[in-house]
Amino acid sequence: MHNPVLVIHDAALAAVTTYEFPINERVRTLLRLEDLYSRVGHFAGRDDPLDHHAALLVMFEIMEVAGRADLKSDLIQELERQRLSLELLRSNPQISEQALDMVLADIEHTNVRLLETTGKFAQNLRENEWLMSIKQRSTIPGGVCQFDLPSYHYWQQLPPEQRRRELMSWLEPMMGIKDGVDIVLRILRNSAKVFHYTAKSGMFQQMSGGKLVQLLRVTVSRELLFVPELSANKYAINVRFVFPAAGSDRPRQSEDDVEFTLAYCNL
Fold first, then answer.
1. Terminal C-alpha separation, the chain
2. Which element (helix H / strand E) includes 171?
3. Residues 121 and 54 placed together within one structural domain of the fold
4. Which of 23-32, 183-192, 221-230 has the lowest mean pLDDT?
5. By CB neighbour count within 10 A (0-12 exposed, 13-18 middle, 19+ buried), where does 194 fall?
6. What is the pLDDT of residue 4?
7. What pTM does this model have?
């Protein structure tokens, strides 16, 4: 069963909620990184020492998730593949050449940035003994109290602007990966083929016939009290709408028909 990695509340369609279900590990990693980069930006942009502590912990998570040796090369290869595909659209009168040029410029800029990144991902953090001592202590419950790391306690009392500058200087060498992730996910989402379905008594099944799909997006009205659960393989897609579990209650499948849209995304 695929649990939704990301829930999107579309500002332009405030009446609906979209749940995203990655079908392979590659897309799952990209969605996790997108979420982590969003969180580190949120916490780093605030002033409280606790927010900057949270930003640092998320930075350590990014280091672990993106630390796979082949992630950078995977992104470079995918961006190049998308660049070649997009170049073929120049003769299509239905495609805005200005919009196409902007996407291609983003891809070129990001590819250059990724290629300029040498060594292991987040090597600047790994070589910083002070940061690594915080990372090590943060895995221990309550392990970053002021008596454990007095130098970290001192850092947290610095002016917010100074802490933020240092956070961003540590994060900057990791931003090439973020740019690559953003572009690939944007192209993936824009590839969506959307269909409207009804889940009879909260259950929907569709035989996929071996059709390749990398991301499924289930969109429902925000007025509904149901949450989709999805399982998929190359043979079939199953969507089940359940009431969210509250407390110790188990999820209970809807007995009503549920109208929803299902988007199939593939690079």
1. 22
2. helix 160-171
3. yes
4. 221-230
5. exposed
6. 53
7. 0.88
Residue entry with tokens 């009392």: 157
Residue ending a domain, among 128, 161, 185, is 185
DSSP-based three-state secondary structure for 248: coil
176 CB burial (10 A radius; 0-12, 13-18, 19+): buried
> In the numeric block, which tokens belong to residue 3?
């649990």
Q: Which two tokens stand for residue 132?
A: 């690594």
Instruction: Note whether 86 and 158 are same-domain residues.
Output: yes
- Asked if residue 122 and residue 85 are part of one domain, the reply reads yes
Q: How far apart are CA 173 and CA 120, in angstroms?
A: 11
> What single DSSP character describes residue 3?
P
Task: Please report whether residue 260 resides in a domain.
Answer: yes
Max Cα-Cα span within the chain: 66
| Spatial CB neighbours of 72, under 8 Å, sequence gap ≥ 6 | 114, 117, 121, 176, 177, 180
Mean pLDDT calculated for residue range 56-66: 95
Contact 220, 17 (CB under 8 A): yes
Residues facing 7 on adjacent strands: 19
